[in-house]
Amino acid sequence: MTAFNSVRFRVKPGLDDEFVELFRSAPRNFAGLRKMALIKSGDGTFFSIGEWDSFQHMTDARPKMIANLDRFRHTLQQQLDGGPTDAVSGEAVFETGVGDKSA
Question: Which key words are in the record (predicted)?
């Protein structure tokens, strides 16, 4: 079953460009990763979305994803819970594609 993860980042003022470049240049050699996107959702706020072949693939990649986070952790503000990110993940319960008439 396809799995997705989403991570919200709040970037320190003036560090947007550095954050984006470090995120963009981080290794993405994760088994099972179909695609990943980084979206700017507001002033200093970004989120990433990853699409995975399975939840297990995503779980197995967590140590590498944390290593990537360590590359740009210094650019991030703390979230409300005290950590540098706000992450959620899970298996898809519904998916649709472009032109899918069943939706």
Answer: Monooxygenase, Oxidoreductase
